[in-house]
User: Which sequence fits this backbone?
């Protein structure tokens, strides 16, 4: 039974050459044996692409079906058969124009050719640290200095790897291109893999004399003090990102530093959004009659609060502008009043309460 190459690739018979290529790329990546795919299916889609990507063979296939000279019927001529496809026929056309370019373009992706051919700026490794701060500092913000051992740009050569005052010369390994081309053969032809030159780091230049501090690497491992600004209102578990304060890379950009903040709990206060919240036990008599009490704010200041006679066992007082600072202003301080019942009553206190009880209170 003749194969329907259009069905194999899942495209319409009027599909453009670019549509055929896109369909093949997707299926080839899915079924490629090196990626754990189905080898038989991979050969089938390769056969279909080899026919439909070539204008002349596609016209013959559309006219005569699989019996045309480029189809599997041609395998009887003694060529190497590749999944029902006469690969010798394909090899005759390989290198005569479009097919070689298309296959080199697509399979270069599988073997790293296209991806590595792009010149990429080296980037250093990211660093993550944990930082523990008191609750007060999480509310009002603070500045912390941390000492980190990491790969940093060499102070002496400023990252060039050259001894100060020394000229740079062309790298003989890559001949100044900054890239190394590695060519290998496969069943589909030659594939070229391009990688960054390890000697010059992609710059194409090397120093005549290496820096005595970093030995020509441009970077070296050392301790570096980094200042971290912690904003007000930060929550426990939040991350602070410091761009390019991670590990350095020769001829490139440094990675980032991430500081994960852990906020210690406070015995009196906690946060609810932009508001600070505290609980205040109130004596029974103060709850019934009202009073003036003194509290210590989170800043350490003494604040006098007038307590009105409470009408419920728990009430909340709001002191505006004493909460968490932010760009939009400052939140409020919420004081949750709780009636503190006495643990032991004197005879006099008990008699007074009994008198109140007799009055229906």
Assistant:
């Amino acid at each position: 039974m003749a194969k329907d190459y259009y069905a194999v690739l899942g495209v319409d018979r009027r599909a453009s050459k670019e549509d055929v290529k896109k369909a093949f790329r997707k299926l080839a990546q899915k079924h490629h044996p090196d990626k754990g795919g189905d080898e038989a299916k991979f050969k089938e889609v390769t056969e279909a692409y080899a026919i439909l990507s070539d204008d002349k063979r596609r016209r013959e296939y559309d006219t005569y079906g699989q019996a045309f000279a480029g189809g599997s019927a041609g395998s009887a001529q003694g060529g190497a058969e590749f999944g029902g496809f006469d690969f010798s026929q394909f090899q005759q056309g390989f290198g005569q124009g479009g097919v070689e370019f298309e296959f080199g373009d697509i399979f270069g992706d599988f073997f790293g050719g296209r991806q590595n051919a792009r010149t990429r700026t080296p980037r250093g490794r990211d660093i993550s640290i944990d930082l523990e701060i008191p609750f007060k500092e999480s509310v009002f913000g603070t500045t912390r200095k941390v000492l980190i051992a990491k790969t940093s740009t060499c102070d002496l050569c400023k990252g060039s790897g050259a001894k100060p005052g020394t000229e740079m010369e062309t790298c003989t390994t890559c001949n100044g291109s900054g890239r190394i081309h590695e060519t290998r053969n496969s069943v589909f032809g030659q594939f070229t893999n391009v990688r960054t030159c390890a000697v010059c780091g992609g710059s194409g230049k090397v120093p005549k004399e290496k820096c005595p501090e970093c030995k020509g690497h441009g970077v070296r491992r050392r301790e570096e003090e980094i200042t971290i600004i912690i904003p007000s209102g930060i929550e426990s578990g939040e991350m602070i990102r410091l761009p390019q304060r991670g590990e350095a890379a020769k001829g490139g950009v440094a990675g980032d530093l991430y500081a994960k903040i852990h906020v210690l709990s406070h015995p009196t206060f906690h946060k609810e959004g932009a508001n600070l919240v505290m609980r205040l036990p109130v004596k029974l008599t103060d709850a019934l009659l009202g009073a003036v009490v003194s509290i210590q704010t989170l800043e350490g200041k003494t604040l006098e609060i007038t307590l009105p006679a409470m009408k419920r066992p728990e009430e909340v007082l709001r002191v505006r502008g004493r909460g968490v600072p932010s760009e939009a202003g400052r939140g409020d301080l919420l004081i949750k009043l709780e009636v503190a019942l006495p643990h032991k009553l004197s005879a006099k206190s008990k008699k007074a309460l009994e008198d109140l009880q007799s009055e229906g209170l």
About this structure: DSSP finds ten helices and 19 strands in the chain. Residues 69-118 have pLDDT under 50 and may be disordered.
